[in-house]
Amino acid sequence: MGKPLSYKILETHLVSGEVAPGNEVQIKIDQTLTQDSTGTMVYLQLEAMDIGKVKTELSVAYIDHNMLQTGFENADDHAFIKSVAQRHGVVFSKPGNGICHQLHLENYGIPGKTLLGSDSHTPTGGGLGMIAIGAGGLDVAVAMAKGTYSVTVPQVLNVRLSGELGPWVSAKDVILHVLKRLTVKGGVGKIIEYTGDGVKKLSVTDRATIANMGAELGATTSIFPSDENTLAYLRSQGREQDYSPLCADVGAAYCGVLEVDLSTLAPLAAMPHSPDNVDTVKNIGSIKIDQVAIGSCTNSSYTDLMKVAAILKGKKVHPNVSLVISPGSARTLSKLAENGALADIINSGARIIENACGPCIGMGQSPKSGAVSLRTFNRNFKGRSGTQDAGVYLVSPETAAVSAICGHLADGSDTGVALPEIPSETFAKNDSFIVYPSDADMQSTGVVMGPNIKPFPRNSRLADEVAASVALCLGDNVTTDDIMPSDSRLLPYRSNIPYLSDFCFEKIDSGFAKRCREIDGCAIVGGENYGQGSSREHAALVPLYLKVKFVLAKSFARIHRSNLINSGILPLVFEHPADRSEFQMGHDLVIENAVSQVKNKTVTVKNKTTGKSCTFLTHFSDLEVLMILHGGKINYIKSE
Ligand code: MIC
Ligand code: SF4
Predict the structure, then answer these.
(1) DSSP 456
(2) 208 CA to middle of ligand 1, Å?
(3) For 524-535, what is each residue's pLDDT tens digit?
(4) pLDDT tens digits for 213-228?
(5) Ligand 1 within 6 A of 486 CB?
């Protein structure tokens, strides 16, 4: 039986185990990436592991999230990350260079390699035929220290593309279509592998857009074959030597197939407040808009911004609309400047902001009260823009640009605006923003730590009796943005867990942190897909700091589940989902004989308030059992 491409790459990186769905395997990690908002924790943890040079072929520390330097905090974090990068042989990408995933695609991604990143959109590298996985910071720190990563082998779902995209329809519409069909939990436990003739019609940056938003499906990663389009992209970046052709075996076995005929797709939008709440732009109608934001790791490539410039050329942004553009990389911005496209953008009345995540993570450009904001980003969770009552719609760059001119949501094909072909370009190497590590620096650099950087909390060994009171009851699809909000107010405190703890679940229940402080041990009750979204391990470290002992849910999102285990918090899955209603706020719960129950991988939680007991599945691997018993991953590693 033929193999999917992803399994072939996993097999060439296998350290232990057997590549079959559900098995835990250890794989070699060739490359890692970190960004600054998760990076401070990663590098604190790396320092705690006391290693010399990283064991990967390449590790890069990007600065792209915490870019507003409204106080000393962010700049201190940047200096800290730079110093640790230099001490351990990590390449440092200075603020201003661009967004980690775009930069990694342009400069370092290599077909067939493995990449682990402390950001959920690391799968962007799948556009280049990589196995690129997003993970919690500690997992990335360990991958740097040991060169390996343990993962449960996902099933592989095949998305077979045929046909060709019509005018005004682009890669963003492909992934929005897939999200509509599969939903935000449709990819959990899966790798999404794209094949079929339609793939040949998509450039690497198109593929990267699709692979990037596979994170919104909950997928472990997404991957495209490496073919002549991959070669053309690498050549355009001056990296032809990194090319190798890769594809799935003929007759590869998949867990399922989703057929998508590209020629049938229309411009789409994800409506507030979920990336899978998708409909066609035509069906949604010409709603009035207040803001348009173009950029993010999903849609800020050279081609995307050239299309935007071509649409805006000679036109004016509508008087009621604020159009803001954040390019994906300095190299893209400089090319737009060289060829005049930047002038076309500026002359239309657009605001150009830094090459960074910016508005995507609420770092500035929050829309006005009650606004409708069209964004080319990947997440439209409530409040993520920084404005709680704004409605964010996720669209393609083409739809965003043409709507900015019209002042309302518009399907470009109805507007009479022309959409020219974008000729391909070649890019000169520019490493002005890169600080390469040197052996001399490794020896001489000390850790630079500002006063806002506080130690991360550590758990203790699992007790035999774990008691907790229910401090919060939630519904389905709770995001890590809900658990630990992030915006320009809070991002500067990503290296200060005690400070962040006051804001845990702030937007859902502002009394949560206070309640946790008053009781000695709390539990959270959730629904399906608990912890979807960002990889931020703060969504586990802050609850740990607030003495959360376990989370009861119908299912968990992959990265957050790992982050909980890494912190020694038990993620427990209802054996009978109907038991969810047995748990209410304030109920006192206990897990008796916790150590032996965890070893047996099934846990009974006794509700002391009602007298009823319910069974929970853990789905723990053997390694996860050890981590839970030791009170988290760092404790386990230190004990080894
Ligand atoms: C996001 O898009 O939510 C982020 C900000 O990039 C996060 C990382 C973080 O919270 O720092 C992610 O996607 O992992
Ligand atoms: Fe940055 Fe937004 Fe991409 Fe996250 S999703 S890495 S915040 S651009």
Answers:
(1) P
(2) 17
(3) 999 999 999 999
(4) 999 999 999 999 999 9
(5) yes
